[in-house]
Amino acid sequence: MRHYDLVVIGSGPAGLKAAIQTAKYGRRVAMVERSDRVGGVSVHTGTIPSKTLREAALYLSGTDQRGLYGRSYRLKPDLTIGDLMQRLEITVRHEIEVIENQLARNGIHVLRGSASFIDAHRLCVEGPDGEVEELQAEHVLIATGTRPQRPDGIPFDDEHVLDSDSVLKLRNLPRSLTVVGAGVIGVEYASLFSTLDIPVTLVDGREGLLGFMDREIVQEFMHQCRDRGMVLRLGEQVERLDKTGDGQVITHLRSGKQVRSDVVLFAAGRIGCTTSLKLENAGLEADERHRIHVNDNYQTAVPHIYAAGDVIGFPALASTSMQQGRQAACHIFQGVGCKGPADFPFGIYSVPEMSMVGMTEQELAKQGIAYETGIARLRETARGQIMGLQDGMLKLLFDLKDHRILGVHILGEGATELIHIGQTVLILGGTLEYFLETVFNYPTLAEAYQIAALDGYNRVNA
């Protein structure tokens, strides 16, 4: 039986960072990965694939140039799923090489197989060939991530009725698509396929999209989606799906409406990958969504067993998962208390992108905080004109009393990059005056911060 200071279950963002941090402390660490390739959901079915397909779609369809050359502009008129997947394969292969190099360079022992608890300190790893190995661990980190939820009654066949994993196995681009679920994943894929000029219908039981986002940003995004021809069926519950003889699927809504399409993508939530871990043998249990509860230091109910990443629930972002894994290792081996990710940015890789940090107008109004806004349109910047941007906005929320930045909200290309400027100023307690007095490179989209600040300044000094 091999002995380790830490056994990490899962090679996604949380597991990878925890393993590397542990190795930096000179400790013996093993990583168990049941797939034949490292990287976890983030690399193979989640973050990297969806974002890579987005970039491929924008480039090959010519969408990002239509502001300059007109709506009829196409870089590749006869776009196929193979064109998109070629770029995805290149990107995923490169990411795997980077991760494997990091693991080898840090002396991390990688075991291929499915892990389960024998007891609180012993793990069983069943390899792909059926061989079984036992590991003794002083500490364990569970970083198994999540998988798409497949509700009963939905006839998934991975051809006409898909989830967010099997959508990557499409053999042809659909002529029409219905997306059920207007969360982050549903919104990203709906806008991606809409970019390819595929008729898309987005269905959700809630009355609005992305309730945690700023309402004005979301309304602007919805306008752009409708302008591309997307149909939004909000406040509508799916009653059932019927497959037809001609290879289509009819989505029946409770209101009586019917939506006919070639493919239905069901993106209604995710559940933790914990069912095969035999948590009960270690004195642990998961909640109804198969997630594991942890304290502020990412410890489970069994103190030497930690969990991090999507498997512990909100915020379930690759960026926060990396930080959680690293901080868990710091707590295990250095006793360093973990600081929860305060004012971390949300990035939604829709078309166009959306990103935010800090508070929304809804939250400020609910808490009775006196605030004002400053808004810039990306087309107002010279760089926006060079890029052919017709839409997009940057919005600053600041305290009326001391002008401290309270929130930053961006819609438009580059939003997930631009947000970090606002994040830094917000976290450091900066004020509107920073954006008024600083100098930005010209021409850049970052100038929108100064335009928004001037707009806000003029509002309070009118």
From TrEMBL:
Binds 1 FAD per subunit. It is found in: Cytoplasm. It is an enzyme of class 1 (oxidoreductase). Its cofactor is FAD. Coiled coil: none annotated. Its EC number is 1.6.1.1. Its main location: cytoplasm. Pfam families: Pyr_redox_2, Pyr_redox_dim. One of its GO terms (cellular component) is cytosol. This is Soluble pyridine nucleotide transhydrogenase. NAD(+) binds at residues 181-188, 269. One of its GO terms (molecular function) is dihydrolipoyl dehydrogenase (NADH) activity. Keywords: Cytoplasm, FAD, Flavoprotein, NAD, NADP, Nucleotide-binding, Oxidoreductase. InterPro entries: Class-I_Pyr_Nuc-Dis_Oxidored, FAD/NAD-bd_sf, FAD/NAD-binding_dom, FAD/NAD-linked_Rdtase_dimer_sf, Pyr_nuc-diS_OxRdtase, Pyr_nucl-diS_OxRdtase_dimer. Belongs to the class-I pyridine nucleotide-disulfide oxidoreductase family. PANTHER family: DISULFIDE OXIDOREDUCTASE, SOLUBLE PYRIDINE NUCLEOTIDE TRANSHYDROGENASE. Residues 4-325 form the FAD/NAD(P)-binding domain. The keyword Cytoplasm applies. Conversion of NADPH, generated by peripheral catabolic pathways, to NADH, which can enter the respiratory chain for energy generation. The keyword Oxidoreductase applies. Residues 346-452 form the Pyridine nucleotide-disulphide oxidoreductase dimerisation domain.
